DUF1269 domain-containing protein (Solirubrobacter ginsenosidimutans), 166 residues
Amino acid sequence: MSNLIAIAYPDLATAEDVLATLSRLQTEQSIELEDAVVVTRDQGGKVKLHQTAKLGAAGATGGALWGGLIGLLFLAPLVGMAIGAAAGGAAGAMADVGVDDKFLKALGAKLEPGSAALIVLVHRSTPDKVLPEISRFGGEVIQSSLSDESEAQLKATLAAREVAKV
């Protein structure tokens, strides 16, 4: 089961830095993310979603593979790959997976103007490797599906950075 975690940051740059750190940790197999979205609220109050998933590309790759295999059956693998890639790309671009966009916009409407939040859907993580890496950015947990104990640990880790900064 995945856990949803939303952490507010004072600006977009900080949220993007945390996302880059999590991406590096994912490459190192310390965390496995299903979805990650940065939500911003500008000074005028407009909420913007910065999606990270490249669904169209994933769909095109899968479609090309299946199209090529089916094309082999009819002795036209290149045509099959082209049609499969186009269909897979279109399907991937239209799919809405991960965290619900309506939820993200509602969460973004609660942010202070000029601030940002990073919302991640975590499938698996190694907290003793992840928490020290993200603690240096601080932040405030604004939504979580973690257990009470895990959420308290995350809040304490992020607050320790805030105390050290003062």
